[in-house]
Amino acid sequence: MSLMEQFSDPSLITNLTFGEKMLASTITMIMGLGITFTILILIWIFIAIMGKCMDIASKPKTKAAEPAPAAAVAESAPVEAAAETSDESLVAVIAAAIAAYEGANASNLVVRKITRLSGDQTPWGNFALEDRLETRKF
């Protein structure tokens, strides 16, 4: 009968010497740690593979978007000739989203001015900061 078989049987463990018990405990500990780290490495590999798959899936695909609702909004919004096309499409998308939210006709909506905010924080971050300061006032 092997040492590990004796160590696993509660009736035979009393017959083992202190050195045999320590050796069996060490073997059990090493096996447990080995299994644990092996599983953790497999989980880490799985997460790395899923991350790469998500990166591949999130890359923009070159498909033609349907500009039908955005075209009507873009025509009603005054746009400078020197503006980039990405800014024009951004204005059109924002205007279409506002029109869809309000349930209004997109031809009635006029975008007069859109400016980018500069700074380190986003408008939501600025609002959160102001909210925290307001709640601390006495």
Describe the structure using short key phrases:
138 residues, mainly alpha, 5 helices
Structure classification:
mainly alpha
**Coarse morphology:** elongated
Helix content: 55-70%
Biggest pleated-sheet summary: none
The span between the termini is 77 Å
* N-to-C series of helices and strands: HHHHH
Outline the low-pLDDT stretches: 79-83
Taken as a percent bin, the fraction of beta residues is under 5%
Oligomer: single chain
Q: How many E-type strands? A: 0
User: What Rg do the Cα atoms give?
Assistant: 33 Å
Q: How does this structure look, described?
A:
With 138 residues, the protein is mainly alpha-helical. It folds into two domains: 3-58, no CATH class; 68-135, no CATH class. It is built from five helices and no strands. Helix 3 packs across helix 4 (85-102). The protein is elongated.
Helices and strands in order:
Layout: H1 3-8, H2 18-58, H3 68-76, H4 85-102, H5 123-135
Helix pairs in contact: 3-4
